[in-house]
Amino acid sequence: MLDQLSRNDRLRLMKFVCSFAWVDLEIQAEEREFVHRLIRRLELDDADRARVEGWLAHPPEPEAVDPTRVPPAHRQVFLEAIRGVIAADGRIVPEERAAFDIFRDLVE
């Protein structure tokens, strides 16, 4: 399914994933590795990789992660990727759970 995402949707996905990695205000090593694995799976080019690294250094602006802009056909992919990043470090803090639940409710 990832291969069906356009370049813009791949970047949108990564922006959401990075924003969820920031929910607890700290990027864990496991979350960073999850993001890097996803970058490889999405086959992002160097410029897009640099953009994602920027989102790992500083979270995307809240208005840049609007759930209503997630294409309906790709909502499940976004949910799975977000679930993956928040679980990557082996624990899901209440803030991550709440943010995920809100996102899920908005896209389902």
What is the CATH architecture annotation?
Answer: Orthogonal Bundle
Low-confidence stretches: none
* Helix content class: 55-70%
Number of domains: 1
Compact overview of the structure:
This protein is mostly helical. Helices cover 63% and strands 0% of the residues.
Layout: helices, strands, pairs:
Elements: H1 7-21, H2 29-42, H3 46-57, H4 75-87, H5 94-107
Helix pairs in contact: 1-2, 1-3, 1-4, 2-4, 4-5
Description:
There is one protein chain. The chain has 108 residues and is mostly helical. The model has no long low-confidence stretch (mean pLDDT 95). It has helices spanning 7-21, 29-42, 46-57, 75-87, 94-107. The chain has a single domain, classed as TerB-like (Orthogonal Bundle), CATH 1.10.3680. It is globular and about 35 Å long. α2 (29-42) runs antiparallel to α4 (75-87).
